[in-house]
Amino acid sequence: VNGGQGGSGGSGASGGVAGTAAGAIALTGNGDVQATATVTGGTGGSPGSSASRSAGNGAGAYLAVGAIGVEGNSLNGGSVSVTGTVVGGRGGSASGTGVSGHGAAVSLNDAVNGSTTGSLALTQSATGGGGGSNSGEQSAGFGGDAVSNLSRSGSFLALTMSVNSTGGTGGNKSAGSEGIGGAGGSATTSASATNT
Q1: Could you tell me which of 94, 90, 150 has the C-alpha nearest to residue 125?
Q2: What is the mean pLDDT of residues 4-33?
Q3: Where are the alpha helices (DSSP H) in the chain?
């Protein structure tokens, strides 16, 4: 699932707003089940170069529609693999006196789940959006923060978890111009697994 990119601003206009994105999936089968969802926020639009206007910030990405995130369920003890990934939208780039957009922050908290008496593998990943570049008089955009927390317990033949977070990359700044490159986003991860 991908959010839409914001439109570019004309002369003297700011960049367009990026589209947010949300996705979810729940699969149930008698045997092995694999459920995967990847959601990416939209990129902010770039401003016109003739005025001090702002690029659009990157848009958020979410692994949830109502109470459902990413789920896989096997009724007869098959192997279940569930993967959920979000990537924040990138900030729009700018030139001249335009202001660059910032990358979107993303957060996942127990967004993947599964049930089986067989083997269960859960993967949850969050990556912040990159900051927009700047080739003019302003600084580049910040990268978005990323948080990924997952806690699961149950009785399985085997339980494996992979929990990842990556802060967004700061925007690039052209050499010889004013301003500085954008700071990268922070990353926070926690995981807890209990197989009884």
Answers
A1: 150
A2: 74
A3: none
Calpha distance 180→94 (Å, rounded): 13
Alpha carbon distance 1, 23 (integer Å): 6
Tokens 């317990």, located at residue: 153
C-alpha count within 13 angstroms, C-beta hemisphere, residue 193: 16
DSSP state of 77: S
Q: How many CB atoms lie within 10 A of CB 48?
A: 18
**DSSP one-letter code for 96:** T
Residue 35 amino acid letter: A
Residues 105-118: tens digit of each pLDDT:
999 999 999 999 99
Answer for the pair 63, 107: CB distance below 8 angstroms, yes or no: no
